[in-house]
Here is the input.
Amino acid sequence: MRIIILQGAFFPVPPLLGGAVEKMWFRLGQEFALAGHNVIQISRRHPELKNLEVICGVQHIRISGYETPASMPHLKWCDLCYTLRAMPHIKGNADIIVTNTFWAPPVLSLFSKIPIYVDVARMPKGQMRLYVGASRLRANSAAVVSAILREWPAAAPKIRMIPNPLPFNSPALGLDIAHKSPTVLYAGRLHEEKGLMLLLKAWSRLPAKLAAEWKLQIAGSWQVAMGGSGQAFFNKLHSLIGKGHIEFTGFVQDPSDLNSLYKKASIFVYPSLAESGETFGLSALEAMAWGCVPVVSSMDCFKDFIHSDINGLVFDHRASHAIELLAECLMSLMRHDKKRKKLAAAAMQVGATHSAPAIAREFLKDFESILL
Here is the structure.
């Protein structure tokens, strides 16, 4: 097959500035090429990357994009301009076009008969009916499937759920979970909707001895252009730092450095409050593959791969005493090595179920079903 992957306007590929979607399709494109397919990936230009190059069999074309604007109307305008700029690079002889941009599906359907495969990588916000010309709406979780159907019930035949893959090979064989450090890790955007204030308040509830023995490590960017909530929010987080060892590492650009954090940490906490924004939770999946026990809020998106007291812990973030519930989850893992190691071993199974080759095969099978 001849596959074109059109990425969004705001993050480059490879994912130098982060971006779970960009990270995923960068890896999947390589898996498609490895399987013998012709793959072109179009993404935002970046000064550290060539405008044209081939990486692991994938031809990369990079065009001018944008820093992420704070205004939603401005963001949609930038997305439209970027989509129009990408049009000349979309070859007419492609078999299928995969895209996660807002405007590409309706624009492409006006000018091309190539099947459009829409990656619904965020919770829909009223745009699903714009995608009537698309051949497929791919959802990465059952929560996203439900959200699409609420907006557009008639879309049911177009929807296919395929989970996100791990962006790296499973490290399970060389990982020793018995000698991990006493570290609780959060990795992701430093945004109000991620529950970081809840996390710091829960950490302040820990007994002084536990807080002294364990470290809370928060990795991510607060800059608005990189998806954070800005300097004022970052300052607010710092004002909540109390007892114990709490470290802000900043944005971790190199994937190998991020994997090192996962490898060392014993617990991964992701207390998201983004009821209408959280679609999958890739960082939690990554951490699990590295033997971190996930502690997550009770978002629907986590239910596909995190099962409380089996391969992680889930707390009710909607409860009036959510701070205490999160603190109790953390304490139960910090205090009980046997329980923590049992859950960690179960968590690592995602290395097989969500491997990039396995998920790539699901996508290729779905592409072929559209082209029959």
User: Anything to note?
Assistant: The chain has two domains: 2-165+355-371, 172-352. The first strand starts at residue 2 and ends at 6. The chain has a mean pLDDT of 92. The CA atoms of residues 177 and 291 lie 6 Å apart.
